[in-house]
Amino acid sequence: SYSFCTLLRRGMKRHGNVLKPTTLVGALLLLGVVVLLFNGSALGVGRRVDPCPVCKDCKCPKYKESRKEELPVSEHVHTSLPRLVKTQGKGLTQLERLYNEEEQNFLAYNADAAKAQQIREKHGVLKIAGFTRLWPPPIHAKGGMQYHAQHLYSRLASLGHTVHVFTTGNPGNPVTHYFKVDLKTLKVEKSSSGNSNLVVHQCPSKRSGSYSVTWYKSTLEKYHEVGESIGGWDAAHSESWAGVANAQQLGVPLVVTWHGSMMDWFRNEMNLIIQNFRLKHNAPSKSNVDRLKGLGESVAYETYALQSVPHHITISDSARDDLVGVDLIPTDRVHLVYNGVNEENFKPDAEARPAFLSKHKLSDSDFVVGCGGRLAPEKGHGQLARAMASVLEEHPGIVLMVAGSGAEGKKYEKLKDKGLRVHMIGMLSQVELAEFYNAIDVFIDPFWQHHGLNTVMIEASLTATPIIATRLASAKTTIPNDAFGLTFNLGLKEDLIAAITYLKDNPAESKQIGINLRKRALKLFTSTVMAQKYEKVLYDAVLHPLSPAHQLDGEVVCKDTYPAMCFRLPKKDE
Fold first, then answer.
1. What mean pLDDT comes out for the span 313-339?
2. In three state form, how does the secondary structure of 309-337 look?
3. Between β-strands 556-559 and 565-568, what pairing exists: parallel, antiparallel or unpaired?
4. How far is CA 55 from CA 39, 50, 71, 351, in A?
5. The whole model's pTM is what?
6. Nearest alpha-carbon partner for 98 in 73, 80, 76
């Protein structure tokens, strides 16, 4: 208003105190600009937000005119959350626009996967050798990679392919296990040799569950023995490093699925340092530094060994980008295949919520925040526990429900001991897990691991449960934009709190996000689509062979730095 009056007075003075139309128009235009910039709410454009004294950002919600004191840097959070706003000229909501932008991508992926059936009908089934360090109980312990292996190989077997799996065993003679895969339910059960369609060979290693030079030798021997008995192999698949050292010795195209890289683990340690500083203001510990030193050596050998792998499969978009952009693997050797889960189990069920909540003495009117899986430090439960302490204290209608087990569960137990509404429900079966997702209002994955594609986010997506996840590279595979969930900055508690309360206060958007997630997940993350995509890659490798990757046929070397890795050196005379 001061600028408006000043311009008006000067214009009138210049024209003998006569108000000219041009002067009035200019003054009004200036006033309009001022209103738009500083008080847009008067015209329905926005609202005035005072600038933050630290970052000078007018959008910072942490600073008000009545609160002049400076805030800690960690509290200056600039969360970009979606709004149901009409798009000019289109009549679509912002969420609808973002959904439409992504739709063509997941439809194209699904269409490519669907080609596998036609190829199988034309060329017949394959004889596939699978290599994995671990297999689910009772052979080894529970874990993501071993369940991925079982899920993938059982799915391929259910499609008619001959599948033999080679995994680690204790010193001594090989042990063979026979399984029957139900073609409809995909349930895997022990069977006799004559009635099985999935065979697992435990080959001797230094100890069961561990790579060793001994294991690569015994595996190769068993591989050739079984190959002779079935008339030869068509293709081979490896879970991470399990088959890499024998890539050239197998004599058929090898496809390797990477669940994470040594570079990822290096960045995991960096993420841990960032989280600990933001949450606790801690400097890097000696263990952080020592681990980075050890991983540096592993990264060097990984970069070298990757060049010898004929075909790479990555399970997230960021991992694919790293292989091509960082490790410089040719694009025709890199394939993107997302993990999948059983879509018949994970689906929306309106009747599940009231029954599940009643079982745990909760009301249907409660806003239930869920998290779960393996409660380990790298899964980020420390930052979620800190955020939920504030949320639960300020919002009595919010409940935290934790499914899973692990050492980090004690952080949630402490919240419960303080009288906050926390329900620890332990490990769940697959059926119970689907009920859990249907019962909660939002699922949070607070991980700080750089790599992989977390199965819990896929399961939640298929049940149409809204997701909040840490804004790290791999999260973008499940949440490509705000139409499919919200993300928060690693270690910034206030950012996570803002996302939780936003979904609570905007149920219409939250519901739409869940619907969008499921539509997309049905095209990308089902076990059916995953098996089809693997089939497509394996058939392409067999029917359209590439020129051999770099040959390595020297001795096998194993590195003990976690995670373990083994590779083959060139011959000494090369």
1. 93
2. CCEEEECCHHHHHHHHHCCCCCHHHEEEC
3. antiparallel
4. 20, 12, 11, 48
5. 0.81
6. 80
